[in-house]
Amino acid sequence: MSVQGRREPALEPMDLDLSTGECVLVAAEPGHGHTALALVATGRLRPFAGTVELVEGHRATRSSRALRAVTAVVDVPGVNEPEEALTVADVVAEGLALARRRSLPPDVSRWLADQDLADERRRRVDQLPGVLRTSLLAELAAADRDVRFVVLTVPDRHGGDPWGWWSVAETLAATGYGVLVQCTRSSARDLGVDLPPARGRTMHDPPLEVLRTRPELPAAPVEVPPDPPSDDDADAETAAATEADVEAGTEEDTQADAEAETEETTR
Q1: Which among 142, 191, 143 has a CA at the least distance from the CA of 165?
Q2: Do 99 and 105 touch, CB atoms closer than 8 A?
């Protein structure tokens, strides 16, 4: 697929596939194909050449409408990045509405509480740390029950450790989403990808797939039942109970003797 701009290609020809449960990282220099790829891959822009297909079982469709219904783009520059002056609560209300979910103030408060973001509700979205911003917007995109594929567009432009937003992407993939992450070549190198710096013609290369994972959520800890008491333990408990009974009986006898002596003295 490729996209032709007014004066030059907006996206050079490239091939890419993405399945649910996968996390795919593509890298390119800033401004070269990131936005075009995000929009073409999700059916929001028709490719100039090539095709984009949604495959379900043995059935494939090229319907842009069907593709848009199951995909979400996150924080695409100049397309759907939130306005800087909006508060976190405003962004959540808008995101829930776009996901066809209730977005009244109580619903927003409940969603923020579920995400442990209640303390951030009055903060401007442009004040959030980069990883927290990406996590917030990605979770809002996934709030749409029809969405199965999510595209995170250049989250590294907001700063922060690349491992932070990559962890956000892998967590989504581990829960069953197909996640496409677009970043710069330098961020890909920070994630351990052996990728040389762009020079000359490679400065204008289309996004290149550099990493593909199929993460799994950590297994839940298994509760081990306590071992049944052994015969020795049972004997010890019986002996202790017997000893306690004997001591109690001794104390009662001593008290009875003392009362008898007192009665005789009184007489």
Answers
A1: 191
A2: no
